[in-house]
Design goal:
The protein is of the alpha/beta class and 270 residues long. 48% of the residues lie in helices and 13% in strands.
Length: 270
């Protein structure tokens, strides 16, 4: 297992709050667009998080009043127009690999959204486990606005499972903005909080999750993702095996002994 305490990324902000990693894109003057380099570094970071024993949850935060304006028009979209198919497919696979890395990192991801979260920024929010936003948050899957399909980075698979097929189809066909109120009502956002409380609220949730049975949380995240493609009988059997594994952890024993002693269990993730 690795540790990420000394990790210093080049293309986004990173800090640790205990065992919670905080990530922020760092181009607030442009509403934090993604570049080829930040895409790749985020992908590699979430891949490495799977093996990081010093991190138990991730919080993705806004910066300067916005979350992310998607792929940078000048740094990404302009160069893509000049690429051949082989290069284009390498890029689209790389962006999809970021989503796969987030889904498979083994850590709960809480995303806090303020201002703009559009295009690939909306995808990052979508691929998170828990989503919190301010009333000012504006979320849009803009791909049709630039002449592309709405099926980008897993959107046609993931978004309908969150908000329903019809609502997802509307957003992906039109590219229109989903308001924060719509997002909460449709279940895309878990809740809305004022901008001044957003970061503290997200960190509090992440801290509470990180203080729980973190090995078991990793199992939960795995099952939430893998059971999408399972039938009910297969899912129930997979959960039986997963829970039997968790019953072998010391955290399960710690919980039993704490409850028997009328104490609050202290989990250690083992």
């Amino acid at each position: 297992m690795s540790k990420m305490a000394g990790f210093r990324p080049k293309h986004f902000l990173w800090r640790l709050e205990g065992k919670v990693a905080c990530v922020q894109l760092d181009r607030p003057e442009r509403k934090n667009p993604l570049t080829f380099e930040s895409y790749a570094e985020l992908r590699d970071t979430f891949r490495e998080l799977r093996y990081a024993e010093d991190i138990d949850a991730v919080v993705f935060l806004p910066n300067g009043g916005n979350f992310c304006s998607g792929g940078d028009v000048h740094d990404i979209i302009g160069p893509l127009v000049a690429m051949e198919m082989k290069e284009l497919l390498a890029f689209t696979r790389m962006t999809g690999d970021l989503v796969k890395a987030m889904l498979n990192c083994g850590k709960p991801i809480i995303t806090a959204v303020d201002g703009v979260a559009v295009g690939a920024g909306a995808i990052i929010v979508m691929a998170s486990d828990i989503r919190i936003a301010t009333p000012e948050a504006k979320t849009a899957f803009l791909f049709t606005r630039v002449g592309l399909a709405g099926c980008d980075m897993g959107a046609c698979a993931i978004l309908p499972r969150i908000i329903g097929q019809g609502r997802a189809a509307e957003l992906l066909y039109t590219g229109r903005t989903m308001s924060a109120a719509e997002g909460e009502r449709w279940g895309f956002y878990n809740r809305l909080v004022d901008a001044g409380a957003l970061e503290a609220d997200a960190l509090d949730m992440a801290g509470r999750i990180a203080s729980g049975p973190t090995f078991a949380h990793g199992i939960t995240k795995t099952q939430l993702n893998q059971e999408w493609s399972m039938g009910l009988d297969q899912a129930i059997e997979a959960e039986a095996q997963a829970q039997a594994i968790c019953m072998q952890t010391r955290d399960f024993e710690r919980a039993y002994r704490a409850f028997a002693a009328r104490q609050t269990p202290v989990f250690e993730g083992t």
